[in-house]
Amino acid sequence: MERAEQTAVGLRERKKARTRSAIQTHAFRLFRKQGYDATTVQQIIEEAEVSESTFFRYFPTKADVVLLDDFDPLIVEAFRTQPPGLSPIQALRGAFREAFAQLPTQEVSDQLDRMRLSISVPELRSAILDQFAGAMQLLIDALADRTGRQPDDVGVRTLAGAVVGVAISAMFAVADDPSKDIFTMLDESMACLDEGLDL
Description:
199 residues; mainly alpha; Arc Repressor Mutant, subunit A; Tetracycline Repressor, domain 2; globular
């Protein structure tokens, strides 16, 4: 009985994830075609063929369509499974590579759009600070677990902040020049951190 309940919960969660992803994919298609500001929630609802209540169950606002994603937890999960012999930065580089490799082509495209929109749309740019704070806390907890230090350890917090800073820097660079490869930039920046960033 317990296994059947777990299976049912697992199926529900997968169905929710698919619905949320489908709404976001249709929304990003509209954003690419006509711009973020010109796209209405109603247009997204019609494009995704969902009810208004379904849309708002997953995304309280249009901005949340862009800002909400599962990528940070995916990186943290990959980080926790890296070999114990790696330094924290080496493990993070491996986690980034692993997480990016798991993304289907459409999700890679949506992730890139998410980054560009977060930087270029004033409404999103002002709201993204909370998302960065959440990502940093996830990293702090994962780094503390891996290193055996406390989450408030200055080294743990500094490294988490540096990694979030790397992500912000890469996002701005891609917003300025869409031909840049965000994944390569992130990896190269993490390599700089690993080498001590000797300028």
